[in-house]
Amino acid sequence: MFQRFAALLLLAACLAAPAQAQQQPQTDLQRTQLSVGLYKIDAQVAQTPLQREIGLMFRKAMPQAEGMIFVFDQPATQCFWMRNTLLPLTAAFVADDGRIVNLVDMQPMTENSHCSEEPVRFVLEMNQGWFAKKNIKKGAKLGGELFAAAKR
């Protein structure tokens, strides 16, 4: 009986561990350099399902020239929300050639769905207002290794 109870406690601890770990922001992802016009972006790359699911959740601050780019296997209509995300963000939905398909401002701690206007493989999240302050709009082109690789 004790062994069964101990096994159940161990199982419960193992199941709870990932949930506890996900309460922390992910700041150790691979990075890539992006550009748009004269501006450079230091972007964390979220490419696995778990990395994309956590995204920028739990981050309390992010430098202005930093963001996170979400990379998907295939172009599709991508939809994002802001559960457990503390920062106001703008999402740029980006085509394979680096073209910004659409930009959407997203409010912290909400579950409103914000979607791409056409199928895309990339979504770049930046601090809200970053694109507007730099006059970067729909149709602008992002540069970087990710987009060169997507063309191949």
Summarize the structure.
It is built from four helices and nine strands, in the order H-E-E-H-E-E-E-E-E-E-H-E-H. With 152 residues, the chain is an alpha+beta fold.
Kindly describe this structure.
With 152 residues, this protein is of the alpha+beta class. It has a single domain, classed as Jelly Rolls (Sandwich). It is built from 4 helices and 9 strands. The strands form 2 sheets. The protein has a 7-stranded mixed β-sheet. Strands 4-7 form a two-stranded antiparallel sheet. β2 (39-46), α2 (49-54) and β3 (66-76) form a beta-alpha-beta unit. The longest helix is centred in the first third of the chain and has 20 residues, at 2-21.
List the main descriptive attributes of the protein structure presented here.
seven-stranded mixed β-sheet; two-stranded antiparallel ribbon; disordered N terminus
